[in-house]
Specification:
This protein has 106 residues and is α+β, with helices and mostly antiparallel strands. It has a single domain, classed as Beta-grasp domain (Ubiquitin-like (UB roll), Roll). Helices cover 16% and strands 19% of the residues. It is built from 3 helices and 5 strands. It has a 5-stranded mixed β-sheet with strand order 2-1-5-3-4. A hairpin with a 5-residue loop joins β1 and β2. The longest helix has 7 residues. It comes from Pleionea mediterranea. Its cofactor is [2Fe-2S] cluster. Belongs to the adrenodoxin/putidaredoxin family. Pfam families: Fer2. InterPro entries: 2Fe-2S_ferredoxin-like_sf, 2Fe-2S_ferredoxin-type, Adrenodoxin-like, Beta-grasp_dom_sf.
Length: 106
Amino acid sequence: MPLIKYIDHSGGEYEADVDVGKTVMDGAMDNMIDGILAECGGCCSCATCHVYVDEKFIPVTGTADGMEKEMLTAVNEPKDNSRLSCQIFVTEEMDGMTVRIPESQY
């Protein structure tokens, strides 16, 4: 089970073991990690699960495209490594990945 690290805007760190096939959003929700609201329940329609993916994991997660990319236009401070955590499906290769939760999510 891959270990995902979540870092909030103030530097607080939280770790969660997330089952392969679940989303990074699921990992946060299942472990009660603040900042990932997931108001739409993971349907890629609200952008309340915005995170910044650690640059070295971009080749593993890929970048946003299609509907996700459109939704990211609605977030505060989008970056090249912005993703909706509901659209990142966990794989074994993501073990040790860090995502940062923007201040705007609080």
